[in-house]
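ok trying again, last paste got cut off:
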Amino acid sequence: MATKKILNKKGLEFLEKYVNNASPTGFEAEGQKLWLKYIQPYVEDYFVDAYGTVVGVVNPEAPYKVVLEAHSDEISWFVHYISKEGFIYVRRNGGVDHLIAPSKRVNIHTDSGIVSAVFGWPAIHIRKGDKEPTPNTNNIFLDCGCSSKEEVEELGIQVGDVITYKDEFMVLNKNFFVGRAIDNRIGGFMIAEVARLLKESKTKLPFGLYIVNAVQEEVGLRGAQMIAERISPDVAIVTDVCHDTHTPMISKIAQGDISSGKGPVITRSPAVHNKLYQLLVDTAQKHKIEIQRIAASRATGTDTDAFAYSNSGVPSALISLPLRYMHTTVEMVHRDDVENVIRLILECLKNIKDQHDFRYLT
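nice, full thing came through this time. structure:
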């Protein structure tokens, strides 16, 4: 595996700030502003669609269009019901995990600002035997220190307010980036770094490069679906995360044999175009970038699917980053994998030609 380091201090400072910022599904604006500010010096143009997907463009006049994409939104909760005693019950916004909620600290995002709260839970002393409750979406609740519904409402809290966890970015053992919303804030970071490195190396691409930070992936790939129609690309390379299966209680038979620190993961799936897949594999081999492989049945479950089946069919591929503890507040990715995803994308872009022939039967 290549060992040359390509991450720099400025980029890592951006990553920490970007991960710590809340960008829940449907409310991604503040994170998108941070991302756009970082990427703007490295692109020639940009635009934002009606729902907040941000696109930085290099070589915007070129007729042949290549998309490089990640999604920006994170899982969260909604305020759903406020009891007369002042406790708040919630509903999911995306695939947020109810089992990890008890004892977590949260921010409730109201029209008048952030209100702090905690997910409460009965003490271990009073949970007995077979009747011990398990967390589910009907019994987990928030406590914001109020004693009545009226007091909660006086804080500005309303049904429909979005709720995010407070956990922040950290680095473990110099190798692992850890935080909430690494899925897929790390993808937005990696494609932004590709833009930076293209600019700093003065690389001239023979096509238009559309660097897309899409919204609303966590509720059905909706941002990618919308922006694919607007851009109408010729090729799409999507970045997301997949499961590191070398941690306890995960079946490699069911999930594949994927490990952090062993390189980017290339997916085989009906949505992944065979020629683009092979271009990624050949590029990795040429540049001695170690890769891992995984098979996805029917769909990848990522924005790749939205691009692939848009506009009468767009050759698409998926480069994934092994991630530990997905959809928790301690998601973890290995620094070397981050660097090698960036490196693989960079080298792959250099191998795509103007009007590249991805026709299926040639």
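cool. The longest helix spans residues 182-200. The chain has a mean pLDDT of 95.
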